[in-house]
Amino acid sequence: MSGSVTPKRLFIKTYGCQMNVYDSERMADVLAPLGYGMTDTPEDADLVVLNTCHIREKATEKVYSELGQIKRMKQARAEAGGAMTIAVAGCVAQAEGEEIMRRQPAVDLVVGPQAYHQLPELIARAHRARGERLAADFAPDEKFDALGAGRRPSGVSAFLTVQEGCDKFCTFCVVPYTRGGEWSRPAAAVEAEARALADMGVREVTLLGQNVNAYAAPDMQGGLAALVRRLAKIPGLDRIRYTTSHPRDMDEALIAAHAEVPELMPYLHLPVQAGSDRVLKAMNRAHTAESYLRLIETIRAARPDIAISGDFIVGFPGERDADFEATLQLVREVGYASAFSFKYSRRPGTPAAAMPGQVAPEVADERLQRLLALLETQQQAFNDAQAGRTLPVLFEKVGRHPGQLIGRSPYLQAVHVTAPDRMLGQIVPVKVQSAARNSLAGALELEQA
Ligand code: 5AD
Ligand code: SF4
Fold first, then answer.
1. 168 CB less than 6 Å from ligand 1?
2. Alpha-carbon gap, residue 215 to 374, rounded angstroms
3. Which atom number of ligand 2 is nearest to the Cα of residue 210?
4. How far apart are CA 262 and CA 268, in angstroms?
5. What is the pLDDT of residues 214-261, one digit of tens each?
6. How do residues 266-286 score in pLDDT, each as one tens digit?
7. Which residue(s) pair with 342 in the sheet?
8. 316 close to ligand 2 (CB < 6 Angstrom)
9. Is 168 in the pocket of ligand 2 (CB under 6 A)?
10. ∠ CA 433-437-443 to the nearest 5 degrees?
């Protein structure tokens, strides 16, 4: 987990107006945290950026002839065992778009003047396309690393990694740089591991991935929904969960699985991050508050009792009071069963770190407290609503009090019950008697006790 940076050399050739000179400086700034320092000679650059100008006639042709020369430098570098990335920015990039890459295939990326803040993302993608990974100037933070969280190798409930990496490039997040692009484990390997787990007494698996619902197995059609249906057939495996999902990848098939596959538990962790469209856009989330709310509606139509969980960031750069109020409003409309809330943490090298309007810590603190208070009320309300119901509980471990077992409801609530040890590993109907914020207390139906 080192934060060391491999130094890289950046050459920028600027054409045209003062605006382009300014933009070139900004590009150098956003690339510095990724290890890029300036060089005066294109020959030894790791990254060459042509910041072009469209104002004079034949400017475009001039860019192509320049690119021809740089292409030869790139070839020489490749022959010497090195690599060079070529980017075209500025007004010619804007006007010609992808056409540039068709005419000059040595060009790795084209970026218009509106998208310079995305340069780190675009460069990371170009590197990945060559099988390289950027050594970014930040260490992955375990707190944000869904794959590292709370692994439980033994017991009746197990985690099973099916997917890694992320292509979403939320502007606050290090994962796409540190973990690389989305990768899915073959379905056959997942199934084999799930069968082995079931043979060892595992009754519940939680499928893990940074973008688990983007699961796209090389050996199976139909994404995560198909995988869930396949695993649901394994004898002994009675409960399936998955985390973490992106709203963008929540497709109809997966929603249908929630309606149709009894083994798929009625719990969904679907981070929204914020409720203001302006902030969501700056976060590069690719959804709006409204589209998220509609999605939740569709999911609830398929599975009305589903427990919804989420992640929130408060104090994202540029977040105003009204934006934060929109987050509270979205939370009120959704009604969360549980949630994780974070104060925005500035990660050098991510686009958000360079955004204006960084929020004062006291302001972020105050917002976090208000959000937590609302979410805690909702969590209590969700738990209270189970009182009097009889729920199937999977007993996982012995409790702190003698004769007590602790299990999980379908909604992932911890349930404390007086029950004999022989019920460990079993799914047993439990009548819920009372609800606290973080757990339920219940009793076995008489005939089982
Ligand atoms: N600051 C605060 N929270 C973050 N997360 C990811 N990156 C940051 C950051 N820079 C949160 C998001 C994500 C969760 C795993 O961690 O809410 O969904
Ligand atoms: Fe990070 Fe966004 Fe990818 Fe989640 S979806 S891992 S927050 S970039």
1. no
2. 33
3. 6
4. 15
5. 999 989 999 999 999 999 999 999 999 999 999 999 999 999 999 999
6. 999 999 999 999 999 999 999
7. 313
8. no
9. yes
10. 20
Distance CA(333)–CA(438), nearest Å, equals 22
Across the strands, what pairs with 205?
158, 240
User: Where do the domains of the chain lie, and which CATH numbers do they carry?
Assistant: 8-129 (3.40.50.12160), 142-384 (3.80.30.20), 390-448 (2.40.50.140)
CA of 207 to the centre of ligand 1 (A): 20
pTM: 0.79
Res 398 pLDDT > 80: yes
Nearest ligand 2 atom, CA 166: 3
- Our answer on whether the CB atom of 14 is closer than 6 Å to any ligand 1 atom is no
